[in-house]
Amino acid sequence: MGTDQLDQLRRDAHAQLDAARTTDELSDWHARYLGRKGALTDAMRQLGALSDEERPAFGKAVNALKTELSDAFEARQEIVRGAQLNEHLASDAIDVTLPGRPVDLGTLHPITQLVREVSSIFAHLGFQTIEGPEVEDAYYAFDALNIPKDHPARDVWDTIFVQSESREIVLRPHTSPMQVRTMERLKPPVRVIVPGRCYRYEALDATHEWHFQQVEGLAVDEHLTMTDLKGTLAEFARQLFGPQRKVRFRCDYFPFVEPGVDFAIDCMVCHGDGCRVCKGTGWIEILGAGMVHPNVLANVGYDPDRYTGWAFGCGFERLAMLKYGITDIRAFYQSDLRFLSQFDRATA
Ligand code: FA5
Fold first, then answer.
1. Is the CB of residue 212 below 6 angstroms from any atom belonging to ligand 1?
2. Whose CA is nearest to atom 14 of ligand 1?
3. How many CB atoms lie within 10 A of CB 18?
4. pLDDT reported for residue 255
């Protein structure tokens, strides 16, 4: 092989290298020119056949060509890899500038949020929050609350009975049974609130659900009076509905309190002038309350001559309806996310 052939080899090698478009084609090219059985190895082998004068110059030229082609190969390899990567990215297109899909974070149910808010208000007033059973013995739901069997007041709570053969078991229609359970367990002074689910056999309408949540409040100690009840409930209403709220107490009847009251706040829509929300009265009743009946204290072994107490029971859904201006109670339990996601205030 002479210098002319070496020049031809260079031209061919560069032309084929420039034509290589894929890594496979590049490997073939490398094997053909720079591999152990490639053209440049062949050229080196022919050194032996040359004369002593020709050999050094030809050897140098082959080595120079080998370096030149190795450099050209590496440069071409870079280009081909880059082109292949671009092609791959284009065909497998991921638009990294597209905004991500939002993750739907769950939120607390509005009633759960309100339960927590009410618990926190009462915690600051020194009340502990406790819970009790939803499936309840009729003794706690009625008898111990001064509502004996066949007492007409039982009809007020449209009760769902679970089992009525040996023991009367009910789904609790109110949280008041927890007054009795709490006093059985604790000695005075007692200051608790008991939020929880209640169930009634109700005809459903915009203000009546068959299951709803109440919060029971109970305070028992020596020398507790109606004034303590009035002060605590007024403070609660003002913290929940705003400091400007006026409050009203009127006589009411519940067998387990004496005297009993209903507690109302002035209508936040018309400020007492009378509107549709307050049915023209200017007042909105929010709970029933009263001084714990001496019979109830005696039923749990408290001495009614030494201890007095007060209690209240309040419906959370009705509170929430007032607080958020909701006109139909059924909205709370229809699991409609369009409704529920409006209450995304607290999630923890
Ligand atoms: C009671 O349940 C008494 N236990 C309250 C009480 C406790 C009085 C302690 C005195 C002392 P009443 O049946 O009125 O009372 O219910 C209390 C509240 O529960 C109502 O004001 C209302 O907010 C809510 N409530 C009652 N029935 C339903 C219902 N079907 N759907 C939604 N909320 C209801």
1. yes
2. 288
3. 11
4. 95
The pLDDT, as a whole number, for residue 90 is: 83
Provide the whole-model pTM: 0.73
pLDDT of residue 347: 46
User: Looking at domain 110-343, which CATH architecture does it have?
Assistant: 2-Layer Sandwich (3.30)
The confidence score (pLDDT) of residue 164 equals: 66
Closest CA to ligand 1's atom 23: 315
State residue 316's pLDDT score.
Answer: 95
Q: Which of 179, 214, 219, 318 is catalytic?
A: 214
Decide whether any atom of ligand 1 lies within 6 Å of the 311 Cβ. Answer: yes
What is the number of the ligand 1 atom nearest to the C-alpha of 156?
13
CB atoms inside a 10 Å sphere around CB 195: 24
Name the residue ranges covered by the structural domains of the chain: 3-91, 110-343
Count of C-beta atoms within a 10 Å radius of residue 330:
14
Which residues of the chain fall short of a pLDDT of 70?
1, 164, 345-348
Query: Is residue 313 in contact with ligand 1, taking CB distance under 6 Å?
Result: yes
